[in-house]
Amino acid sequence: MKRFASNIAMVIALVFFAMPAAALDTTTTTTTSGMIYLVPISYDNSIYKDSAETSGFYFYRGIGDNRSYEFGMDITNIDYWSGYDYDQRDYTFVLTNYTKEKKTRFGGHFVTASINEYNVITLFGGTGDYSRTDRYSQFDLYVSSYNNFEPSLMAFQISYKAGRTLKSKRNIYALTQLNLINLTKKADLHEQNYFSAEQSFTFYRDKLTTTVSGWVGKQAFSVGNDGFVVSNKAELLRGGFGVKFNYALSELYSLTLGANRTRFDDTSSDNTATSTSYTLMLGHTFN
User: pLDDT per residue over 51-78, tens digit each?
Assistant: First the structure.
């Protein structure tokens, strides 16, 4: 499974991002950007986890006004109090097609872990509507397969988001997202259906962009960040909040700093703990 996912990741990355623009279409304008990031994580009151760290990279390639490709890969290491060292690799691919007022997106997220039951294949698709200049809406369906989990299960998630620029303050963007998750089996949890609501506000001021966010409700085996984050353990997530600052260093470089705090129940346990993650990200536009 690990070798298969790694080979697929390398092939798609080469096709999407190493191919010269001229090989695609000499008359089509291409835009390429990317970022690298580091996310240290600390845990409070967890009976299992001590600390963790995630590092990775993300690439975006836009082909004219009609299509874009995205690819992300990250490596996560979790240190447990027992001394066990857990490793995980995530690969995400997204293809988006644009028309005058709508977009459709399809993608996959693959997880390979040092514990086989946490290996996951997630496929997703969705559509977005930006026919109004001050509003946006998006609907997505995520299907995750946990074939090695005991017992094996499927997770279905429906997400709907709606965003708008506030008319009184054109430099403020509000985004609301609703999530409904259904598990085919309880998988060491008490329920099979979970609902959550997310809210964020983004403030634009010169070179600085600030986003504050929070969510309430419950999630399990959830998919976030438009498919780039998959929660693949039997942990009940109970809400959280965060803040993110993005600063444009120049026309080509940007720096992002962020922090998030999340409440969760330890794996197969009713013990409630919290995680705090800190994000350091450097972005670059290639053309």
Answer: 999 999 999 999 988 999 999 999 999 9
* Nearest partner of 149 among 116, 194, 183, judged by Cα: 116
Q: What pLDDT, on a 0 to 100 scale, did the predictor assign at position 27?
A: 57
Predicted TM-score of the model (pTM) = 0.90
DSSP SS3 for 59: strand
The rounded distance, in Å, linking the Cα atoms of 273 and 234 is 14
Query: Alpha carbon of 58 to those of 15, 66, 67: distances in Å?
Result: 15, 20, 17
Among 94, 93, 96, 26, which Cα is nearest to 67's? 96
Total residue length of the chain: 287
Domain ranges across the chain: 2-285
Q: Tell me 22's DSSP state.
A: H
Task: Quote the CA–CA distance of 237 and 247 in Å, as a whole number.
Answer: 30
* Dist. CA 78–CA 85, nearest whole Å: 6
For the stretch 218-255, what's the b/e string if a residue is b when 16 or more beta carbons lie within 10 angstroms of its beta carbon?
bbbbbbbebbbebbbbbbbbbbbbbebebeeeeeeebe
- What top-level class would CATH report for the domain 2-285? mainly beta
Sign of CA dihedral 126, 132, 133, 137: negative
Task: Identify whether the C-beta of residue 200 lies closer than 8 Å to the C-beta of residue 244.
Answer: no
Q: Which residue has the higher pLDDT, 31 or 168?
A: 31
Question: pLDDT digits over 211-243, tens only?
Answer: 999 999 999 999 999 999 999 999 999 999 999
